[in-house]
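Incident review: delayed structure delivery

Summary: a single-chain prediction request sat in the queue longer than the usual turnaround. Root cause was a stuck worker, restarted by the on-call engineer. No data loss occurred. The affected request and its eventual output are reproduced below so the record is complete for anyone auditing the incident later.

Affected input:
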Amino acid sequence: MFMTMIDYWHYTGDTTYNDVVEQGLLFQTGPDNDYMPANQTKDEGNDDQGFWGMAAMLAAETNFQNPPAGSPQWLALAQAVFNEMASRWDETTCGGGLRWQIFQFNNGFTYKNSIANGCFFNLGARLARYTGNDTYAQWAQRIWDWETSVGLIDSSYNIYDGSSDVQNCTVIDRLQWTYNAGIYLHGAANMYNYVRPLFLS
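Output delivered after worker restart:
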């Protein structure tokens, strides 16, 4: 919703809702400025945190009104989410990937899915383009390669829901969701924009 509201302002110039959008985006940052607020921590998944991070990323990309001095800034919030996702990259099963859930006590902790990894991929691609830091692009490439290696993205670019790490991601849940397609398409477009100048130089 907040991404939609930022887009609304960006394309119309109407600032009517900007203050409440800023308030909403800052309200959930949490004590560590990473979109892990205490009121959500027990059931927050990697995808949930990722969507907040992408909203902050969009605010940075569109030059949305800056938070007050002393508050976390949009780019720093997006980077904090990315860094935490990178710290959760799990190679103990399936050769890598993010789990759907952050905490072991939540249903879905053993599930590695495309939306959690898609948020991570999308943020990495956009941070690479925005900052010029190739480390983000390397992570984006790593995530894409992992998705294809386990079969969550096939040779026709179908993107499937996920797989259980109990089975070492050998059985794929072939449900498809439009938001998975969209998040990877958006990330891939940002990767193209990031790498194209490198080939032209």
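Verification: The chain has a mean pLDDT of 96.
Action items: add queue-age alerting; document worker restart procedure.
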